[in-house]
């Protein structure tokens, strides 16, 4: 199991466990875990509604690709610890990370 901590918009914190090898991205797992994430573009890195802030474990994650960086550049509240959850594949690199959900709600 891969364990990570999610901080919701209201600052409630919860650890979630994800089976290894499920071949999903973090956005899909968060939606399946009933977090309110719009994911308007369906995971194509085109809308940034799955914006998360990585509070712990950023160094363990793969570098963002150009498309993700371009999308994050459009967000006024994005920082160097910002990622799009749709671009993070669920694998052992996510073990122990702590994220805060930041994406907009419409």
From TrEMBL:
Signal sequence segment: none
Species: Pedobacter psychrophilus
Cofactor: [2Fe-2S] cluster
2Fe-2S ferredoxin-type domain span: 2-105
Identification of the protein by name: Ferredoxin
CDD domains: fer2
Entry keyword annotation includes Iron: yes
KW Iron-sulfur (keyword) present: yes
Gene Ontology biological process terms from the UniProt entry: P450-containing electron transport chain
Lineage: Bacteria, Pseudomonadati, Bacteroidota, Sphingobacteriia, Sphingobacteriales
Annotated coiled-coil segments of the chain: none
Any one GO molecular function term: electron transfer activity
Sorted UniProt keywords: 2Fe-2S, Iron, Iron-sulfur, Metal-binding
InterPro entries the UniProt entry points to: 2Fe-2S_ferredoxin-like_sf, 2Fe-2S_ferredoxin-type, Adrenodoxin-like, Beta-grasp_dom_sf
């Amino acid at each position: 199991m891969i364990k990570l901590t999610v901080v919701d918009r209201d600052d409630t914190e919860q650890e979630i466990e994800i089976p290894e090898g499920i071949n999903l991205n973090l956005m899909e797992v968060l939606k399946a875990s009933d977090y309110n994430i719009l994911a308007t573009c369906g995971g194509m890195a085109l809308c940034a509604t799955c914006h998360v802030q990585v509070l712990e474990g950023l160094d363990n994650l793969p570098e963002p690709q150009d498309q993700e960086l371009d999308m994050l550049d459009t967000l006024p509240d994005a920082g160097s610890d910002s990622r799009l959850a749709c671009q993070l594949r669920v694998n052992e690199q996510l073990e122990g990370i702590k994220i805060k959900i930041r994406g907009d709600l419409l």
